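Hello forum,

I keep getting stuck at the same step: I have a sequence, I want structure tokens, and every attempt I make locally crashes halfway through. Rather than fight my setup again tonight, could one of you with a working pipeline run this one for me? It's a single chain of 204 residues.
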Amino acid sequence: MFLGGRELKELTVERDLSVLVQDDLKVSQQCCKAANKGNSVLGGINRAFTLKSKSIILPLCKSLVRLHLDYAIPAWCPHYQKDIAVLEQVQRRATKMVNGLQNITYEQRLQVLGLTMFKTRMIRADLIQKILNNIDHVNKDKFFTFALDNRRGHSLKLYKSRFNLDIGKFAFSNRVCDNWNCLLEHIVTATSLNIFKNKLDCHL
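Reply #2:
Ran it on my machine without issues. Output:
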């Protein structure tokens, strides 16, 4: 096909707001891109600092590395374990840089540093979306259907639809339902986003 005398090439990947969107709607290339950026920054930190104490590495990782891994994560949230592992490996490497933590397990390093696994951060990112909490005044009825049976759990439970294809199963409005429905009443009825975040962090 031609437009204005120029041939239109068929692309399998398109960039939109720095997120790579594949024609099959999988996110493996975006995960690799985010991991590569995170590892590149980690390499710079490793070369720039001789003393790699918790007080130095932790703030740098949170401010410079994590932003590449978590950028717009609700929009391209990976669901394949191989993609999640690629991103988790960046944080695994970062925690191992801290002096004195090289000889303990990854889970122990996370506990010492007060960090959470990447999968937990994805869940948190989904749950704090302003659509769910009616902060941005977006019509959430276009995204969600509230469950009619609220005898179990809290009063704002969501109905989860059934899909055969991954594109439906793991869409934001469907994948968030189980995690939202597992929350407690005092969390989902929080009066502000900050209060909701604080209560959610304690829950997670």
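The chain has a mean pLDDT of 87. If your local run keeps crashing, start a new thread with the error log.
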